[in-house]
Amino acid sequence: MSKQINVALIGNPNTGKTSVFNELTGLKQKVGNYPGITVEKKEGICKLPRGVKAHILDLPGTYSLNTTSLDESVVVELLLNRNNKDFPDVAVVISDVENLKRNLLLFTQIKDLRIPTLLVINMADRMSRKGISMDIPLLEEKLDTKIALVSTRKGTGVEKIKELIADYKNLSSKPNIDTSIIAPDYFERLKKAFPNEDLYKLWLVITQDVNFMPIEKNMLKGFSSFDIKSKSELKKLQHKETVVRYQFINNILKEAYKVDLSAAKGFRAKLDKILTHKVFGYLIFFFILLTIFQAIYDWSSYPTDFIDNLMASAIEWIKNGLPAGVLTNLITEGILAGISGILVFVPQIAFLFLFISLLEETGYMSRVVFLMDRLMRPFGLSGKSVVPLISGTACAIPAVMATRTIENWKERLITILVTPFTTCSARLPVYLIIISLVIPEGRFLGLSYQALTLMLLYLIGFGAAIVSAMILNKILKIKSRSFFVMEMPTYKLPLLKNVVYTVLEKTKSFVYGAGKIILAISIILWFLGSNGISSNFKNAERIVKERIASKGLSDYNKRNIEESLNAYSVALNDSVLQKKYTIGIEAIKDSLEVRKLDLTNKAESQEVAGYKLEHSYIGYAGKAIEPIVRPLGYDWKIGIALITSFAAREVFVGTLATIYSVGSDEQETITSRMAAEVDPTGQRPLFNLASGISLLLFYAFAMQCMSTLAIVKRETNSWKWPIMQLVFMSAFAYIVALIAYQILK
Amino acid sequence: MNITVAHLKKGQKGIIKDFVHDILPIKLLELGCLPGNTVELVQVAPLKDPIYINVNGTHIAIRKSVAIQIELELIDDTQKA
Fold it and tell me: What keywords does the record list, in alphabetical order (chain B) (predicted)?
């Protein structure tokens, strides 16, 4: 087998680097993280002419090799380390046709590292519209390289890139510029101290940390003995280097690159005027947010429900098809239920990333940052944090994933940490049921108390997010770019291929990345909920049946059966009277008997299930934490629900349904059952104003969602942040709920 | 008082003067904020910050705090009239 060529794609942001990558690799790409850090690593395989294969690495976008961020230092560290397994045999610098000048700055730096480098000039389709003409052979000669003129939009020139890569051995690896002219004495001394090293490489190593964080310089032995200049002197030299490079580039472009200015301008200026307008700009952004919100909240509910139902019937089908037993239960209630819990998020994630990639592709996202930067700055957030924070109102999982667009690590981390405070849709069932139980029905200024409470809860969520962002901004000591320079790219029509790839890739990364953790926790919760060691658990069926035999069903179930039988007999009699059926009285009695047996059996199995849950591991855990949740006004049953709803908040309702043996999570049924529950003193309802408010506040603040933890783990690449989030949010929720209950009780 | 990029009005242009080398972020130079290049103020964000400029064909947004460090020679368009 022939050797694979290592290719690195390098370029400024917004040059269509990703489009070129997609064209070269198709779907044969893999996205991961660089070890230990959160920078995305995209790689793929490309088939070249003459049976050669290339391993393509899409490096993060950078304007130069002077690092100012983690993303950029990934690029530099790879290019400086010839022992890295990904070290490129050939570097492909990608430029767009309009900003050739500043892309060449990066090009000359890479060339000076003596790496064979070829130049791709993308977006060739814009040349005529922008009045640009180029002398490619002259450029090739002056830059000492090969050039491919490409339009990923039109699909032209990609074959040329492949040919040039395959032919990389004929590329020159001579440097463009002699950097030592910026400080001849200094470079002379450098040369003497390290006679075996390349001078420009040395220079890059020395200046690596001038703008960014310190890096290890152990690749240079005896470095400490060398007299290092002060940071400020080095920075001056870096500036000088930039000027020298631009002189070199300007001299070339004067001859080889012409722009007819009269052809340019127009469209962009007009759009900018509207989109960044102080009124219309915000209105348009608000409208777009509203659409995104509508999509993840409403439109995605159709595919979500479909997946939910499909999985439910699949579980039912498998349960009936397999012999009853532990294994079947593990498959259906543990594994399949877990998978279903992962898949239901897919529509929301897909929708959100559809919109986000459209916003990014068109260049609108930069305008959003421009509009929002001043507003978000005091909170340590980025202008781009707005999209995650708003979409967090639907679900925190896609929202946390959406923070990938925030370049600044500190701003991104803060956004990730505070997003789970916003009121996601999984809190809604919990809120609705408790509000209907404890908040009186009156009205205030025409608004019902219940609606006001719900709105207040949303506001509290946002408030908590903003306040904790401010606090985190103060306490997090992360060195990151202290300045803000952002390119405002030209507006472009989005490329369908890029949008589709983004959506696919994000969905995949959720299903495989966070899915594993969700599945594992869901299996653990299933195990703990359906197993127990006590004899009570093992003999649950017998114990409950004996109790029913001696005392009958629980009062609630008795009444419930009676009511539904009455309703049924009324309905039967009605239809007989209306001559829908002609059946005798005996037959009516029979069918009532059958119905009664059916209901009784159902009630019995519900009571068994409730009893089992009570005596399972989770049940004991619920009882064990009762002393802890007692001061919040909860009993052990709510304790159990708190534990199980760690899987997802909405499980709270289902768990209470099981414990109360209601056997239905229809809201009305369970609400009436919950309303009947009295607290241990027997004096008042368990769900009273004090305990209700305390529960609402607990759910508003607590990190009750394993999927969010899983995705935070994935996005921050460590367990440190999700665990801190869990501990901090739970503690905060506990304290607030405690205060609320103690004051109100 | 020295005129800086922060003092430009919308649509106004200026030429960047020589500046002390180490005060500006290197990124600005890489994007073309070099002495002798023309700067045009394109837009100002609704809360007066950040500002959106065109340097030498590159469109970038910068904060006021940075803009105030880039000194300019104004190009006076009014004289033509």
Answer: Iron
Are the CB atoms for A357 and A498 separated by under 8 Å? yes
Q: Say if residues A499 and A361 touch (Cβ distance below 8 Å).
A: yes
**pLDDT-based confidence at A1, cuts 50/70/90?**
very low
With an 8 Å Cβ cutoff, is A66 touching chain B?
yes
Query: Nearest Cβ partner of B45 from A66, A243, A370?
Result: A370
Among A230, A488, A490, A492, the strongest candidate for a mutation testing the B interface, having the largest count of B CBs within 10 A, is: A488
**A491 pLDDT more than 60:** yes
* Residues 288-347, chain A, touching B (beta carbon < 8 A): none
Band the pLDDT of A662: cuts 50, 70, 90: low
What the block records as the tokens of A138 is 């002259």
- In the three-class reduction of DSSP (H, G, I as helix; E, B as strand; rest coil), residue A96 is classed as strand
Structural contact between residues B74 and B12, judged by C-beta atoms closer than 8 angstroms:
yes
At A425, is the secondary structure helix, strand, or coil?
Answer: coil
List the single range of A159-173, A195-209, A407-421 with lowest mean pLDDT: A195-209
Place of tokens 């440190």: A720
Asked if A400 and A708 count as a contact pair (C-beta separation under 8 A), the reply is yes
Phi, psi of A503 (to 5 degrees): -60, -45
The answer to whether the CB of A176 falls within 8 A of the CB of A148 is no
Min distance A62 CA to chain B CA atoms (Å)? 10
Quick check: A698 pLDDT over 90? yes
Instruction: Please give the backbone phi and psi of residue B54, each rounded to the nearest 5 degrees, phi first.
Output: -120, 110
CB < 8 Å to A371, chain B: 45-46
Both tokens assigned to A333: 């209630």
Phi first, then psi: give them for residue A12, nearest 5 degrees. -65, 155
Tens of pLDDT, residue by residue over A220-274, are 545 555 556 777 788 888 888 988 999 999 999 988 888 876 655 667 888 888 8
- For residues A405 and A238, give the distance between their C-alpha atoms in angstroms, rounded to a whole number: 29
In 3D space, the residue among A399, A434, A362 whose CA is nearest the CA of residue A652 turns out to be: A434
Cα B44 → chain centroid: 12
CB contact under 8 A, B22 and A243: no
Q: CA-to-CA distance for A299 and A348, rounded, in angstroms?
A: 9
Chain A residue with minimum CA distance to B60: A487
Residue A3 DSSP label = P
Best probe of the A interface among B26, B56, B68, by most A CBs < 10 A, is: B26
Q: Look at B56 and A242 and tell me if their CB atoms are within 8 Å.
A: no
Q: How far is residue A55's CA from residue A32's CA, in Å, rounded to a whole number?
A: 15
Q: Which residues contact A311 (CB under 8 A, 6 or more apart)?
A: A336, A337, A339, A340, A343, A344
Show Cβ contacts of residue B69 under 8 Å, excluding neighbours closer than 6 positions.
B4, B19, B23, B24
Residues A709, A726 contacting (CB under 8 angstroms): yes
Domain ranges of chain A: 5-170, 179-262, 535-607
Each residue of A59-86: pLDDT tens digit? 988 998 887 777 788 898 889 888 888 8
Pick the residue of A483, A487, A490, A492 with the most B CBs within 10 A to test the interface with B by mutation.
A483
Which residue do the tokens 């590329």 mark? Answer: A171
Name the one residue in this structure whose structure tokens are 């069926």. Answer: A541
User: What is the C-alpha separation between B34 and A621, in angstroms, rounded?
Assistant: 66
In this prediction the pTM is: 0.79
Domains of chain B: 5-80 (2.30.30.90)
Could you write out the DSSP letters of every residue in chain B?
A: ---BGGGPPTT-EEEEPP--TTSS-HHHHHTT--TT-EEEEEEE-TTS-SEEEEETTEEEEE-HHHHTTSBEEEE-SGGG-
The mean pLDDT value for A89-93 works out to 94
CATH topology classification for A5-170: Rossmann fold (3.40.50)
Contact residues on chain A for B28, CB-CB shorter than 8 A: 485
